Amino acid sequence: MRWLSDDKLNHLRSVVSEPDFSATKYTFVKELGRGGMGVVCLAEDRELDRLIAIKILNTPDITEDLRNRMIREAQIIARLEHPGIVPVHDAATLADGRMFYAMKYVRGSRLDEYAAQGASLRDRLRKFQAVCDAVAFAHAHGVIHRDLKPQNIMIGSFGEVLVLDWGVAKLLDREDRSYSSYRTYSNSDDTMEGAVIGTRNYMSPEQARGEVDQLDERADIYSLGAVLSFLLKDQPKVSKAAHAISSKATATSKEKRYSTASELSADIGRLLDAEPVSAYRENAFERTSRWVGKNRFLVLLVLAYLLMRIFLIFTSRR
Amino acid sequence: MDPDTDIGGPAHRFPATDHSAIINARSDDSRVRRRAFDTILASYWKPAYKYIRLKWRAGNEDAKDLTQGFFALCFEKNYFATYDARKASFQTFLRTCLDGFVANERKAGQRLKRGGDIDHLDFAEAEHEFAAHASTLSPEDYFHREWVRWMFTLAVDAFRQRCEESGRTVHFQLFERYDLSDDEVSYASLGKDFGLDTATVNNYLAAARRDFRRIVLEKLREITATEEEFRAEARSLLGVVRP
């Protein structure tokens, strides 16, 4: 038998894990990334002459039944038309039996990269609010993402916010949940397949426990809270209200979280507008400080006026 | 017998199986158990031999006897039937059993010749590979690496055999030249050598790689007990760290 050198062995492993696009309209360009759930490739759509991103799920030989179910779900998810959602264009099976999703290829930075580039707290909150709005839209259409994390959020070249990777999302109110029941998670930032889906640091407790039937929009709210916590981390002068929003969204009990992503978005909006947020009860001093902060120009004007009056009174007595 | 799932070695043939050999090792039917044992033996004897050579610093003949003794005892006592997939992967289970066996044998200071009909293994080749390719890996990592290498070697052999049986020798030859050979070749030069246009070379190679992948997964399924273990091992086997 032929001896396989380490290089040859690595090559063969690469060969068998490389996507086989021979029966599709796509041409493999390069690998963009690799995670627990699969591999993301850049490919060319030969019919439409454009670049697209293709995610190939790391399931070596899924059953026909499972494949059909995944395609059916992908079709419904593909109907989500929102500026903040990168939709699934196509879902099918490669000749080698692996399932894939074709998505728009987004140029830009991931949210974690965007944060690392030194974005201000205000900019971070604005981007986060846009994420909440996109997720709220999906929830309104009965779709939960289940794997929200900074790595799945892109900031496009024009500052637009796009939530990626809806290929592993879940439709709510479905009787048949066996598709979900075969996935699992890892302890890294990679999403994995098995009994539960998600990423440990961003996954709700009920999701981590594998309570697939208990998952609803509030699982995504938890993940959003974890993303917010990530964005607040290492930021100077983060208000107690901001931390309170994050804490409320990531409450262990889902009953204590925001019930909708819109509510969370509204609280972020109020935070940006220096208005009281629902997650935090201020004392009189904090209320005054916030009011002063919000109306700084008016306060300065009044102070200047008062100082001028005092000065005039003082000088007129001489 | 279905030739597509026949994975025989040069001096012994391993019958086809549609199911996991690990599961079949628990069968009440002795013929099914024997087939399961042969499959497991075929998949693990060489990594086991090299592992004993490395970890236990056993000499060539000593390692050969220990490998044969271990698998013979496993067959005799039907150890593989005791594997519990919830506790560890089969690979870890087998390695742990192997360590226990070697430790006991060393303690006893004597080796009993056992049956099991496993005299056909090509230890000379295994010894040559061990001696020629020194490793700096830990014994456990080495065992895994050599198992992966052996699985792919068996898959290449099975693929060659299938191509010959189905009259698709060109597919294998293209695969051999492009993916197995150390020589750098282009699709165009292959096309010239085989009298094919570049697009056909591309299609043949894609089909060959697809078939090869299927064989690798088939082999993996044979030696895993559960769906979860299969998926985990598939990730481990196919999850490539780019060189």
What characteristics describe this protein?
heterodimer, A: 318 residues, alpha+beta, Transferase(Phosphotransferase), domain 1, 2 domains, five-stranded antiparallel β-sheet, three-stranded antiparallel β-sheet, 10 strands, B: 243 residues, mainly alpha, 10 helices, 66% helix, disordered N terminus
Summarize the structure.
The complex is a heterodimer of chains A (318) and B (243). By secondary structure, chain A is of the alpha+beta class. In chain A, 40% of the residues lie in helices and 16% in strands.
How is this structure best described in words?
The complex is a heterodimer of chains A (318) and B (243). With 318 residues, chain A is of the alpha+beta class. Chain A contains 10 helices and 10 strands. The longest helix of chain A has 22 residues, at 296-317. The radius of gyration of chain A is 25 Å and the shape is elongated. With 243 residues, chain B is mainly α. Chain B contains 10 helices and no strands. Chain B has helices spanning 21-24, 30-55, 60-77, 90-108, 123-132, 139-165, 169-180, 187-194, 198-222, 227-238. In chain B, helix 6 (139-165) packs antiparallel against helix 7 (169-180) and helix 8 crosses helix 9. The radius of gyration of chain B is 19 Å and the shape is globular. The chains are: A alpha+beta (318), B mainly alpha (243). Chain A binds chain B through residues 1-4, 6-18, 20, 22, 34, 36, 58-61, 95-97, 182, 184, 193-194, and chain B through 125, 129, 133, 148-149, 152-153, 156-157, 179-180, 182, 203, 206-207, 209-210, 212-214, 216-217, 227-228, 230-231, 234-235, 237-243.
SSE run of chain A:
HEEEHEEEHHEEEEHHHHHH
Query: How many strand segments of chain B?
Result: 0
Q: Element order, helices and strands of chain B?
A: HHHHHHHHHH
Query: Quick one: which chains have the greatest interface?
Result: A-B, 32 and 35 residues
Number of helices of chain B: 10
- Number of structural domains of chain B: 1
Q: Largest beta sheet of chain A, briefly?
A: 5 strands, antiparallel
- Estimate the strand proportion of chain A: 15-25%
Biggest sheet features of chain B: none
Structural class determined from secondary elements of chain A: alpha+beta
What structural class do you assign from the helix and strand content of chain B? Answer: mainly alpha
Q: What's the CATH architecture of the largest domain in chain A?
A: Orthogonal Bundle
Radius of gyration of chain B: 19 Å
The residue-averaged pLDDT of chain A reads: 83
Strand order of the largest sheet of chain A: 1-2-3-5-4
Oligomer: heterodimer
User: Would you give the CATH topology of the largest domain in chain A?
Assistant: Transferase(Phosphotransferase), domain 1
